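Entry 14. Ran structure prediction on the chain below.
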Amino acid sequence: MMEEPVRLPAAAALLSLVACSEATEGPTPKLEGLINPLERLVTPARVCNAGGDARGWRLELIGSGFTPLPRDALTDTPAVELPQVTLSGPGDYTLPADHLFFARTELMRMDLPTRNTTPSSQLAPGAYTVSVTNPLGGTARLADGLRVVAPPTLEGFTAPQGFSYGGGSPLIIEGSGFRVDAPPLITLHREGDEDRPLFTVTVASETRIDTEVPPATPEGTYDVRITNPEGCAVTRPQVLTVAYPKLGTLALSPASGPASTDTSIAITLSGSGRSFSEGIADVYLVAPVKTDPGQRVNIPLRDVKYVNAARLTATVPTCAGFDPPPITDPQCPGGVVPGGPYTLIVTDPSGAVGEVSLK
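Output, structure tokens:
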């Protein structure tokens, strides 16, 4: 919830404080730190000169002696003049009064505008001295209290080994502004689908990230979004196309089976496309189970065996579903919902994939 500048209740208390002082200059504040809530333990605070919400990035000023000054406290329109916050570095900037919020004498908050806010202000990247000046005078300064950084850029994407349905697919991302000290959040996005985070991320340098596209990521073209810990983010639309090498045409025998028992099947290949490789393939039946009939899930087939380059055998856990055998309940409470339609997916050890629809 957006905070409002301190108003009448605090003004009355502050008025008595100021009235008791004979000095023409107010107390000198002390500025101990500036904090970006997105990275509380990082010093000096880093903040992006782009993005943020409509008012910018919320930052916290920590110290003591922050002393607003009541104005017109005995009139019908009392007001409070807050300490002034300025930044000095590659450029100079004074925070607008309506972007400052007084919490207590040890804490103030400020919304730092960016190029994307209204009003906008794109600070040049670099180190800034932060100054807090009380209305009656007295200034505290914190040298190198804030580091302004630009958002990263995304320039190139390379999958040197192609994409594999059954395992993570290495992906090299090239650009600039990557943080070696703190891995970013990287997500794949396409319309109508949930965002897919990339979990394995290594920042090799400020211009290169080594990551992996997770196994079983659906084929398609994705936007790529990278978000640095301090909030900097950039999105490149429609830049990564995930596609897998294909097996030949799959056929099952038998193509159907009873719901009351598990079913042994043979899977054969024909036509163009890759053949089966020696080794254990991952084979899944995509179907709902009785414990959650509204959701289609990947149910792994059991006893998968390689026979030759055109033939596999396996057991479909029609009755068992995810439950370990033997199943003694004839109602098969954890089994596959009968009736279909289903999909059978075969992931070969080579990374090739094939599927067949079953009705």
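Helices lie at 8-19. Will compare against last week's run tomorrow.
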